[in-house]
Amino acid sequence: MVKVELSISEYRKRFYISAGLSRLSKGFKSKEDANTELENNRSFYEYWSKSISVSVQNTTPIIRNI
How many whole angstroms separate alpha carbon 66 and alpha carbon 48? Predict the structure, then answer.
């Protein structure tokens, strides 16, 4: 399992709660709104950041030539 930190990222003028490359939240209009959501529901986002889909998305692919 890949350990990733939660952060606030901006994409197309919206702010998201992210775990590595995965966006875990809907888009917020301001960074303060995203920070408030993260503070209020941190345990939920930490649990979600440990899911297999987030882990797979943040793992570097292994390319093997046969």
Answer: 36
Amino acid type, 48: W
Judged by DSSP in three states, 58 sits in helix
Reply yes or no on whether the pLDDT at 59 is more than 90: no
> What crossing angle do the helices spanning 31-40 and 42-49 adopt, rounded to 10°?
90
- Residue from 32, 11, 39 nearest 23 by CA: 11
CB-based contacts of 6, cutoff 8 Å, min separation 6: 17, 18, 19, 24, 38, 42, 45, 46, 49
CA distance 47 to 28: 21
pTM of the model: 0.76
Domain locations along the chain: 6-58
